[in-house]
Design a protein that fits this description.
The complex is a heterodimer of chains A (341) and B (344). Chain A is an alpha/beta fold. Chain A has helices at residues 50-57, 100-105, 117-120, 127-138, 143-156, 162-165, 175-187, 205-222, 233-239, 257-262, 267-275; strands spanning 6-19, 22-35, 39-43, 65-79, 85-91, 110-113, 193-197, 225-230, 242-247, 250-256, 326-327, 333-334. Chain B has 344 residues and is of the alpha/beta class. The relative contact order of chain B is 0.13. Classes of the chains: A alpha/beta (341), B alpha/beta (344).
């Protein structure tokens, strides 16, 4: 896929953490592409590297973590003379985390919303202050304009009485309102990509529905792409177009949402879909759990990382050969020896 | 005191739990948070009663009142004990509660904070046995080993500390601890919420096996409707300290009778992209339990609210019958509304 519509390509990304106990290979070969205006879901269990991957895109991985290999190609649209658009491809993985170029992209081109709005907002600044900071960092505007834009943004995300709430501190807002404030902050500079890392995990279902609705609506209006990182298969089924499944830092399957849920290819995806209780399904016997647990990150299994838990493990093959991500003709990809042509 | 029908093991009558709000230098009481406000329901022998609702609706408080971790403000918790005698747990002095601490046990949400990191698994699971003078020494170890086997852990691990176990294994330790004294009722408060989906299924299956094997009765508290639909025989839906609907599981999910249940069901993301449906997005936030609205607590967010809903508080009443189980709902318009459930 090398066309106009590509926004971000992650190629064979590896992010490792160098600890005293050993090296944790949090991301060990992630490949994905996000289209301009598209919605990509990244699913996996805790510890599969989905969050670290998104932090890597923004170069937010903290020491002792480091991107050790791979490319993150960001296709930036540059406005020349107001009309003709030029494409500029930057490799984010090659930029220094604190460089000017990276800081220009962060918040302006790519923004992120985090899981826990209470811990990711500053408790000692008003939400207005925090939104204004983003605006004044990236735009040459005065204080009054920034404040007006902050109020507009709060209104846009559905916070009632934004003129008053702009001076509220995070603790004065409910969980749903805080997440809205967070979204307002992320979208203040109209980014072309929004990374949402478990945006509704800390929220109740009815609030979750409000936030999902809001993200979809803003996406339609602002034309931004969304990368939704979640463990909730229901959420990706509801709003995503394409899905990437991760296991132990590797992308094991990539497909469009309908094919993935209709015909999952990787044994892990299949097992994952079988193990969840589904609403509205009359109880048919027992759940079919995946055996065992996600292995300890210091001792990655040799061969296919999923083989110790896989029901279709081929002894002598899966525990020796590490499968490659195979691109299929129907624009899907899968990392499994069973699916090799 | 009214007597319980034989199939009922626990009956909660008009339970209220109000927490005082204190303010100022003298810590004067300026109001009350009505965490549980006049709740009545029955738990039948051997069933799993699911209790669902959003955070702050009082579902955990009910569980804790039944365990008498809190002293309820008002109401009765009638319990039929192992000797078939009837007692009111809400009225008992704490010194008289000890025998019931064996019969009613709890499984907690967070497998990380609910296990003491400085105790070995043997100490954790064996503690209730020691406290109640059931076993000691070598017998204690035998019993702990058996309990660990029963929940699917290797008995050799009993001298390890909780940090050596994964989240799912820790939750199994918590379950073993709850089962140590052969309880009759287990209150599972968000027992699988902190676990990954693949592990969640393992624990749900385990809970189901143990129920069949040990003839347990569960009060299963959760915010996850798909999980509750899977485990529960009957489901109670709570909103701001009150039960708004209580019915047999399939009836409640297929034909909800309360608008809040309908909205809750439609808000759950379904893991099937072909079933993308229009979500009912509720306006506003959950009412403040310290200062709830007049009338029906749900009326400011309800799409079907009438004038009557703003003034009259609806009572929980039987609005239908499935088999021998009644379908209860607290809505003035329960009969006339045709609400959307989840299709299977």
């Amino acid at each position: 896929m090398k066309d106009e519509s590509t926004l971000l390509e992650v190629k064979n990304l590896k992010t490792h953490f160098f600890l005293d106990e050993g090296t944790v290979k949090a991301v060990e070969g992630a490949d994905l592409t996000i289209r301009r205006g598209g919605t990509l879901g990244v699913v996996g269990e805790s510890g599969c590297g989905k969050s670290v991957m998104s932090y890597s895109i923004l170069q937010l991985v903290e020491s002792p973590g480091r991107i050790v290999a791979g490319q993150i190609l960001f296709h930036r649209q540059l406005k020349c003379n107001g009309q003709s658009q030029m494409m500029d491809v930057i490799d984010l993985a090659a930029l220094a985390p604190n460089s000017r170029a990276m800081r220009d992209i962060r918040g302006e081109e790519i923004a992120m919303i985090f899981q826990e709005p209470m811990t990711s907002l500053s408790p000692v600044h008003t939400i207005g202050n925090q939104i204004e900071e983003v605006i004044t960092l990236h735009r040459r505007v005065d204080h009054a304009t920034a404040r007006r834009q902050a109020v507009d943004m709060l209104r846009r995300v559905g916070i009632p009485k934004p003129e008053e709430r702009v001076d509220a501190y995070p603790f004065q807002l409910s969980g749903g309102m805080r997440q809205r404030a967070m979204i307002a902050m992320a979208l203040a500079c109209h980014p072309s990509l929004l990374i949402a890392d478990e945006p509704t995990t800390a929220l109740d279902v009815t609030t979750q529905a409000q936030i999902l609705e809001l993200i979809q609506e803003l996406q339609r209006d602002l034309g931004m792409a969304v990368m939704l990182i979640t463990h909730n298969l229901g959420m990706v089924a509801e709003i995503c177009e394409e899905i990437v499944v991760m296991y132990l830092g590797e992308v094991v399957e990539r497909a469009d949402v309908f094919s993935l849920f209709r015909e999952p290819l990787h044994p892990y995806t299949r097992a994952l879909l079988r193990s969840i209780p589904r609403l509205g399904q009359i109880k048919q016997g027992r759940l079919d759990p995946i055996q065992g647990a996600v292995p300890d990150p210091y001792n990655r299994p040799v061969g296919c990382p999923f083989h110790p838990r896989c029901a279709q493990m081929m002894p002598g093959t899966c525990d020796r050969i590490h499968p490659e991500l195979i691109e299929r003709r129907d624009n899907r990809a899968v990392r499994c020896l069973l699916c090799e042509p | 005191m009214q007597t319980l029908t034989p199939e009922v093991m626990l009956e909660v009558n008009n339970l209220k739990m109000h927490f005082p709000i204190r303010k100022g230098f003298r810590q004067r009481v300026v109001g009350h948070v009505k965490a549980v406000d006049d709740v009545s329901f029955a738990v039948r022998r051997g069933e799993t009663l699911g209790l669902v609702g959003e955070s702050g609706c009082g579902k955990t408080t009910i569980g804790r009142c039944i365990m008498r971790a809190y002293d309820p403000t008002a109401g009765a918790i009638l319990y039929c004990n192992a000797k078939n005698e009837q007692v009111d747990l809400a009225a008992l002095k704490s010194s008289d509660l000890k025998p019931y601490r064996r019969e009613l046990r709890m499984i907690f949400q967070d497998p990380y904070s609910s296990l003491n990191p400085r105790m070995t698994v043997l100490d954790i699971v064996g503690e209730p046995l020691k406290v109640h003078g059931v076993a000691r020494g070598a017998e204690l170890e035998d019993r702990v080993a058996n309990l660990l086997k029963r929940v699917g852990l290797r008995p050799e691990y009993m001298r390890r500390y909780p940090h050596a176990f994964s989240g799912g294994q820790r939750q199994r330790i918590g379950i073993a601890r709850a089962l140590a004294l052969d309880p009759r009722i287990v209150v599972a408060d968000e027992a699988v919420s902190a676990l990954d989906v693949s592990v969640q299924a393992q624990i749900l299956n385990l809970l189901e096996d143990l129920q069949a094997e040990l003839n347990l009765t569960y009060l299963f508290i959760s915010h996850d409707l798909s999980v509750v639909e899977y485990v529960a025989d009957r489901v109670a839906v709570m909103y701001v300290g009150k039960i708004v609907e209580l019915a047999e599981t399939t009836a409640l999910f297929a034909q909800p009778k309360h608008p809040y249940t309908e909205a809750l069901l439609s808000a759950v993301p379904k893991p099937d992209p072909t079933m993308r449906s229009k979500r009912i997005v509720l306006e506003g936030d959950v009412a403040d339990p310290a200062n709830p609205p007049r009338g029906c607590y749900f009326h400011p967010r309800c799409r079907y609210a009438e004038d009557r809903c703003k003034t009259e508080t609806p009572a929980l009443r039987a609005v239908g019958q499935v088999g021998n189980l009644s379908h209860f709902a607290a809505c003035h318009r329960a009969e006339e509304l045709n609400l959307r459930g989840v299709v299977s």
